[in-house]
Design a protein that fits this description.
The protein is of the alpha/beta class and 363 residues long. The protein has 13 helices and 13 strands. It has a seven-stranded parallel β-sheet with strand order 3-2-1-4-5-6-7, with helices on both faces. A six-stranded parallel β-sheet has the order 10-9-8-11-12-13, with helices on both faces. β11, α11 and β12 form a beta-alpha-beta unit. The longest helix has 15 residues. The radius of gyration is 21 Å and the shape is globular. The chain starts with a strand and ends with a helix.
């Protein structure tokens, strides 16, 4: 049977890592002539602008703006039947749960549930034990993908059965298009030397920690490169206020969301990941693919599968502002050659083949 894959999301936000990864995967499916579409359960409100752009680039649907979860689920059932969807790839727990009910409604449907972050994260609404029960349920009728090896091990240790159906599949990150975009002119005025950090301006990404460590580093060396932060989010004003309080506003440039961060990452003196938690940080993979020196917190799952401290980057003890400060001060010592070899398995085509194999496997 010809594959017809549906990407299922709770919402769709501008600059979201999961959203970007699934669009990358969709592009890879397009190159392989695999039919696919997107469905967003909450495609209005804060998701509206990102969904509009998504629908310009892909076949995309969204649930009615008003209505209960059951109403939206029934709408999804109709779409699956009308479009003869054969497989679902879902992300985040609301979407995973919807996919679970879709599998019950359509027993021949293949479902791949994905997990992109650790169980015990601060912004996870469900408790870790509830998440563990859900993954045990998912394994009754589908395969589960973890985006890092450590996350796979965490899920494996938490579920009661179906351990053989838990798989590590890296995110689809690296493509020829990414490298072409990296060679474009920067969309901002010349920064001179600068550090770059990219991501949503939310607590998870730890930009408040980065600002504090950077301020401490500047106190010891005023000649450090400036800090450019690319991204938008609910903490924007809070972070700008913190930069002002720390007296570093002139050295920090908040440039907002940019559609092409690669042309900013490639020439940077270093890319910095200050996240409190990740699954597998896509932007860190991108920076290494572009041979940009990297500094990253050793946060739960992800960075320590990419960085060997001192060999291909600086892996900083988790949440240590002192060590992050020192890494910034020593940025000239960062390795900057052959970083891309570490992340060769994140290519679109290889990842797409893995998902196609799972989407055809029994649940």
């Amino acid at each position: 049977m010809e594959s017809n894959i549906l990407f299922l999301h709770k919402c769709f936000v501008t600059g979201g890592g999961i959203e970007r990864v699934h669009q990358n995967l969709g592009s890879a499916f397009f190159d392989k002539s695999v039919k696919h579409c997107f469905y967003v359960l909450n495609g209005f409100g804060e998701s509206h602008s990102a969904f509009t752009k998504l629908s310009n680039d892909f076949t995309a649907f969204r649930a009615p703006e008003s209505g209960s979860f059951l109403t939206k689920l029934n709408n999804l059932f109709c779409l699956i039947k009308q479009n003869r969807v054969t497989s679902i790839i879902s992300a985040t727990e609301t979407a995973n749960l919807a996919a679970f009910f879709c599998k019950i409604r359509f027993p021949t449907l293949r479902v791949v549930y994905t997990r992109h972050c650790a169980f015990d994260v601060s912004d996870q609404k469900l408790s870790p034990w509830a998440i563990k029960l859900l993954y045990s349920a998912y394994l009754l009728n589908g395969n589960v993908v973890a985006v890092s090896k450590a996350l796979k091990q965490q899920i494996h240790a938490s579920v009661f059965w179906g351990k053989s159906k838990i798989h590590f599949v890296p995110n689809a990150v690296i493509s020829e298009k990414m490298h072409a975009l990296a060679n474009c002119d920067s969309s901002i005025e010349d920064q001179g030397k600068y550090f770059i950090a990219v991501g949503r301006l939310v607590e998870q990404k730890g930009f408040d920690l980065l600002l504090q460590a950077y301020a401490n580093a500047l106190n010891e060396n005023k000649a450090l490169p400036k800090l450019v932060i690319a991204g938008a989010g609910e903490d924007e004003q809070k972070l700008k206020a913190l930069a002002k309080t720390l007296g570093i506003s002139e050295a920090v440039n908040f440039i907002g969301f940019v559609s092409n961060p690669y042309c900013l990452i490639k020439p940077a003196s270093a890319f910095i990941l200050s996240s409190r938690h990740e699954g597998m940080p896509t932007v860190l993979v991108e920076a290494m693919a572009l041979e940009t020196p990297v500094i990253a917190f050793d946060c739960p799952t992800g960075p320590n599968e990419l960085i060997i401290n001192g060999k291909n980057g600086s892996l900083v003890p988790y949440l240590s502002l002192e060590h992050l400060k020192n890494a910034l001060l020593d940025y000239k010592q960062l390795p900057s050659v052959n970083l891309s070899k570490t992340v060769e398995h994140f290519t679109y085509s290889e990842v797409a083949n893995n998902y196609l194999s799972l989407s055809k496997a029994p649940g």
